[in-house]
Amino acid sequence: MLERVRNICRPLPEVEELIDGFGHHVFKVKGKSFVMMSENDGVPGLSLKSDKEQQYLLLQKGGYVKTPYIGHHGWVSLDHTAVPDWDELAGLIKEGYLLAAPKRLVKQVLEVE
User: Fold this and answer.
1) Which end of the chain is more exposed for a tag (fewer CB within 10 A), N or C?
2) Which terms are listed as keywords in the entry (predicted)?
3) What fold is seen in the domain 2-104?
4) Model-level pTM?
């Protein structure tokens, strides 16, 4: 799962991957997180930055849960029992990036599309 997420995140401008104090892989743009990955008892976890409207829609749809501790900011996590839809996840990761990125990078990404 980590390699697939890396392949989605790395082409985005000025993305950095860090390992935080909890051992989570965190993808950031200009110091702001937009993807976090963890592992709990061998089960990978994926959390994504989203806005509250998108969060609501994803929670209603199913396959996602509100991320503990930061869900009140709009973050969602892939339900560990869900089969990942990688096309959808790629879009959600990009949306999270656009929420976290400064305006000049948002413009750069949107101009490429």
Assistant:
1) C
2) DNA-binding
3) Aspartate Aminotransferase, domain 1 (3.90.1150)
4) 0.93
